[in-house]
Write a structure and sequence with these properties.
Radius of gyration: 16 Å
Bound molecules: guanosine-5'-monophosphate, magnesium ion
Helix content: 10-25%
Number of domains: 1
CATH class: Alpha Beta
Length: 181
């Protein structure tokens, strides 16, 4: 696998992300909501660099791939109360943007005092929505990446670096499988 971002590069990017978040909120209490499962590594790394009073919750999104592509469900059971709070939504990657757009819409309906979003990665030229996250650590080319939380068929999340999965390594048989994003 080709390494796109090594451990040092990821660490520098996450430090910069944390710096910007600290600068934006300063001492204001913040509620962070991570999108499971891809954001777990970023979430663990970034929250330890934040200096304001912090609450951490998660939502889980999942979608069906193959012929059912596009049906997104959002599980908010572990989200925390966000009404009248400053909220920062954190995900691994902004690809088409559809997932984050749906989560943002759902969260906005719950009346946060403010809502911003942060991602580790933004894929160039893939967006189907007219907005971008407020904080982006890296813009990357349009390749399928794994590691640092991101999976292929639920594997590779534990890689400490970010790697490109070559087309030959991606199974061509597209079965109807439920994938936890
Ligand atoms: P979107 O709704 O923005 O198209 O997709 C967002 C979700 O798709 C991400 O949270 C992630 O789970 C998954 N995804 C998009 N691109 C990639 C990729 O290159 N690698 C992996 N592992 N997941 C991706
Ligand atoms: Mg995801």
């Amino acid at each position: 696998m080709k390494i796109l971002l090594d451990e040092n590069q990821l660490n520098a990017g996450v430090n910069q992300l944390a710096l910007e978040i600290n600068k934006t909120y300063r001492d204001r209490p913040l509620t962070i909501i991570g999108v499971l499962t891809g954001s777990v590594v970023l979430l663990a790394d970034v929250i330890r660099k934040l200096e304001m009073p912090l609450r951490v919750g998660v939502v889980q999104t999942s979608s069906y791939e193959g012929s059912q592509r596009g049906a997104l469900t959002i599980n908010t059971q572990m989200m925390l109360d966000i009404s009248d709070r400053d909220v920062l939504l954190i995900d691994d990657i902004f690809d088409t943007g559809n997932t984050m757009s749906e989560v943002v819409e759902l969260m906005n309906a719950l009346g946060p005092a403010s809502l911003k979003s942060a991602v580790l990665l933004c894929k160039t030229g893939r967006q189907k929505v007219d907005w971008r996250p407020d904080f982006i650590a890296f813009d990357i080319p349009d390749e399928f990446v794994v590691g640092y939380g991101l999976d292929y068929n639920d594997e590779y999340r534990n890689l400490p670096y970010l790697a490109c999965l070559e087309p030959s390594e991606i199974s061509s048989t597209s079965e109807i499988t439920e994938s936890s994003k």
